[in-house]
Amino acid sequence: xxxxxxxxxxxxxxxxxxxxxxxxxxRWTRDAADRGAHxxxxxxMFLTGYPVEDLVLRTSFVDASIRALEQVAARLADEGLGELxxxxxxxxxxxxxxxxxxxxxxxxxxxxxLHRGRIVTRTAKHHLPNxxxxxxxxxxxxxxRLPIFRLHGxxxxxxxxxxxxxxxxxxxxxxxxxxxxxxxxxxxxxxxEKDDVRLELVARRARExxxxxVYANQVGGQDxxxxxxxxxxxxxxxxxxxxxxxxxxxxxVVDLDLPVSDAEPGLFPFDAGDGTTITVERVVLSAEPVAxxxxxxxxxxxxxxDTGEVYHALVLAVRDYVAxxxxxxxxxxxxxxxxxxxxxxxxxxxxxxxxxHVVMMPSRYSSEHSLxxxxxxxxxxxxxxxxxxxxxxxxxxxxxxxxxxLAAENLQARVRxxxxxxxxxxxxxxxxxxxxxxELATGYSTLYGDSAGGFAPIKxxxxxxxxxxARWRNEHTDPSFLMSAERPIPDNSITKEPSxxxxxxxxxTDSLPPYEVLDRLLDDYVExxxxxxxxxxxxxxxxxxxxxxxxxxxxxYKRRQYPPGPKITPKNFGRDRxxxxxxxxxxxxx
Length: 590
Prior knowledge:
The protein is built from 18 helices and 20 strands. The chain is an alpha/beta fold and 590 residues long. Strand 12 and strand 13 form a beta hairpin. Helix 5 packs parallel to helix 6 (194-209), helix 7 (306-324) packs across helix 8 (338-351) and helix 7 crosses helix 13. One of its GO terms (molecular function) is NAD+ synthase (glutamine-hydrolyzing) activity.
C-alpha cells in the first residue's frame, strides 16, 4: 500500500474565458503543490467552462481549447509546477471523417493528464447524456479510451462525469482492468436533494470499480444551471472519506492509502459491457511510492438542509449571472408582496444591498400595507429605493385608448415593466423579474409587464417554496451572504394573503386554487408528466385538473418569452421542458 495526497479543485470556471480559466488552473495548482499534493484534479471541461453548447460546433473554439491545454501544460512547468500531475477537462476533437448525424468537427468532452510541461494522455466522456438539460449527442462523439497512469506506484484511472451515471463503460472496464484509484472530473448541476443521490451513486460505482473514487464537481452559476460543488471521496467499499462544502470554491485535500501495482504499460482492449470496446492505455509516471508521511485529517463538510440548499443555489445563481455578464447592479419592482421581497433578499445576499435598487410603483389599487411593507423591507435590508406612483401614467394611457377588464389590469403591470426597463437602460441595472413557478405555470403574469426583465431568480420556485425560503432566510444567515441584516423580510409580507392588486380587493385565490393545492397538482403535471387520467387517479379533483391543465397548456407562449432563471427542481421551464406553442393536443380523462 502507498499513500497519495489528492487535491480536488472545486472551482467556478467562466464559459468561453479560456485565459481566465487557465490562470485559475495555475493558481489552484500552486495551492495544491503548497499543500503537498501528489495529484491535482480539476472539473469537467474546466478550461472552456461548462456547458458551452453550440460553441463546440465552431472549429475556432475547439482549436482554442486544444491550444489552451498545450499552453497551460507548458506554463505549469515554466512556473515550477510541472512535477505535480494535473487532470483537467477541456474540449478536444476525435478526428473522425464528417458524416450525417455527427456533430460538426466530432468534438470530445475530454480530459487530459498534464505533467512536466506536456500532455501525457487524453480521454473523453464515453456515455453522452441526452435527457433533462443535457443535449450531448448534439455536441460530442463518444470517447473509447481509458487512461490508467501509475503515480508513485498507484494505478490511477480517469473517467468523466456521466460515465458514473450509466451502466457499463469506463467503470466496468476499471473493474476488469484493475486500478487503485478512479478520478472523475464532473460538471453535475444542482437540483433539490441531488446530493443524496450523488453520494449513493459514487459509493456504488466505487464498489463496482473495486477501488477508491475521487469525484470533483464544478461550482457556480451558468445561465439556467447552478453547480453546487459537493465534491466527494469514497474508499473502495463506498464509505465516505471526505466531502467538500456546497456552493463555494475550495481545494479539498485528502490522503488515501492505495494499493501498489506492477501491471505492464501498453494498450489493452476491453469489453465495456455496453456493446462497445474501450482501450485501456497504461502509462507510468512514477513507479516508486512516496516516503511515509503523516496524512491530513480528512474533512467532511456538513450538509445544508433542503431549504437552505435551494436558497444558497439562488444566491449563487444571481451572483454569477450578474458578475459573469458584467452588470454592476440590479433593479426590481418592490410591491410589498412575498415574491419581490424574497427576490430582493436573494439579490442583497448575492451582490450586496448597496448594489440593489428597488422601485415602489403604487397604483390606485395598492393597499397602504403594501407600500408600508415595501418601505419596511428597504429599511431592514438597506437597499436603494425610490417611489414612482403610476396612477397618472396609467390615466395618460387610458385617455388615448379605452381599455377595460383584464386589459386595464395588464396595463398597470406593463407600465411598471416599462419604468423598470427605462431605469435599466438609463443606469445599466440588470432587471430582476420576480415571478414564481406557480404563476409561470398557470400564466398568472403579464407579458411585457411583470414578466419583463433580464434574469428571474425564483422562476423555478413554486409559491409554497417561496414562503418556505423567506422563513428560512429570516432564521438563518451565512458568511457568504453579503447582507448582514437579520430577518430581512417583513413578517407581514410572509403572512398576508397574496394579491396582484390590479383591481379592488383582488386576491390570487380569485383566479387560482390555494397554492398548497395548486403546487401539488403542478408538481404531478409539470415535473412528473402525468396525464389527466393519472392526475385524477392520484387524487386530484377532476374539475380542477381540467382547469389547471388548460391554464398551463395555454401559457406556453408566455413561458417562451420569460427571462432565464436558475433551475432548482427536477424539471424547470426552459432546458428541461420543451413543448410546442402551436399545439392542439389536450389532456382528457379516459
